[in-house]
Write a structure and sequence with these properties.
The chain has about 300 residues and is an alpha/beta fold. The chain has two domains: about 1-175, 3-Layer(aba) Sandwich (Rossmann fold), CATH 3.40.50; about 180-300, Orthogonal Bundle (N-(1-d-carboxylethyl)-l-norvaline Dehydrogenase, domain 2). Helix content is about 45%, strand content about 20%. It is built from eleven helices and twelve strands. The protein has helices spanning about 10-20, 35-40, 80-85, 105-115, 150-155, 175-200, 210-230, 240-250, 255-260, 270-280, 285-300; strands at about 1-5, 25-30, 45-50, 50-55, 60, 70-75, 90-100, 120-125, 130-135, 135-140, 145-150, 170-175. The strands form two sheets. The protein has an eight-stranded mixed sheet, with helices on both faces. Strands 4-3-10-9 form a four-stranded mixed sheet, covered by helices on one side. α3 (about 80-85) links the parallel β6 (about 70-75) and β7. It starts with a strand and ends with a helix. The model has no long low-confidence stretch (mean pLDDT about 95). The structure holds NADPH dihydro-nicotinamide-adenine-dinucleotide phosphate and ketopantoate. Its EC number is 1.1.1.169. It is an enzyme of class 1 (oxidoreductase). GO terms for molecular function: 2-dehydropantoate 2-reductase activity; NADP binding. It catalyses: (R)-pantoate + NADP(+) = 2-dehydropantoate + NADPH + H(+).
Amino acid sequence: MHWHILGVGAIGSVWAAQLHLAGYQVTLLLRNKQKLLTYQQQGLVYESDKLGRHQLNIDAELIDAHSPIENLLVVTKAFASLEALNSVAERLTPHSQVVMLQNGMGPQQQAAAQYPHLSIWAATTTDGAYLKKPFHVIRAGYGETLYGPLNQSATGFTDTLFPQVFPELQINQTPDILHKLWCKVAINAAINPLTALYQCKNGELLNTVERRNTVADLCDEISRVANACDQPLFEQPLFDVVAHVAKQTAGNFSSMHQDILHQRPTEIEQITGFICDEATRHGIATPINEALRHEIQALSERSK
Ligand SMILES: NC(=O)C1=CN([C@@H]2O[C@H](COP(=O)(O)OP(=O)(O)OC[C@H]3O[C@@H](n4cnc5c(N)ncnc54)[C@H](OP(=O)(O)O)[C@@H]3O)[C@@H](O)[C@H]2O)C=CC1
Ligand SMILES: CC(C)(CO)C(=O)C(=O)O
């Protein structure tokens, strides 16, 4: 099985390394000659406390190479994923499998609708990784990745996408990936914008009564939207799940907090923006989400 990786950042590098180590043929898709040159000079360094340090020479090419793509993993930030997919669309064949792996919601569904003749899958992960520098990735967290079909073409695919065994990736197929994406976006909508705004670690999100009340009200809004969309979230209240995740990741700075800090674009539109747009569609008021959407947008603008 040959996988092309589009988005060779933190998570994309982990997947490239793990697929390569599991014996798959892997090709990295890089978007300009400078990046390709940098990669060719150093290769991919993958560090993990479980498997040690690997110096890997995985094939790489520019996105506008001409060979057909059999299996594509799109693992950019959510705001870039549809454009990234479009940039290689001509290389996909009617038999290609495309997996969209990112946080947030929207682009995955747009991809499934835009390419009904292709098998479009979505994936969500609780793994953690960061880049020490370009093409040098540190695996920081060991979670689970769930993937499942998003459109009819993928539903008809009966084999598993990942037949090999991975020592360090826990990958499972789910029949209802949409619901898993909803659950993840709900948690991210409750934690990410507030930690970015308070400039705090996840573990500090609930450490005052005022913050706890805000998170509780925010969770109420998100849950009401999910229910209106026929996606009731968890068996326990969203607030309890969020409190659990915040405790489990207490020492982390959320990805949105880090994006603001490092003056990078955030996924606010695909997380909180998605919740707000669904709320509008169902006539539900979400004043806290709306306020957070605008505050994070303003923070992003200010940090440019
Ligand atoms: N990192 C983590 O621990 C976790 C991340 N996630 C989610 O996974 C997704 C990916 O995150 P992460 O790996 O951290 O992100 P990164 O920013 O580290 O990587 C994204 C990569 O995508 C590349 N890219 C962007 N646009 C294009 C394009 N048009 N064509 C080709 N490549 C492109 C970027 O390349 P360039 O360098 O050229 O800009 C960059 O290397 C996000 O949705 C994130 O929220 C989920 C759980 C944990
Ligand atoms: C679960 C959480 C909040 C962990 O930091 C996350 O997914 C993120 O930071 O984007």
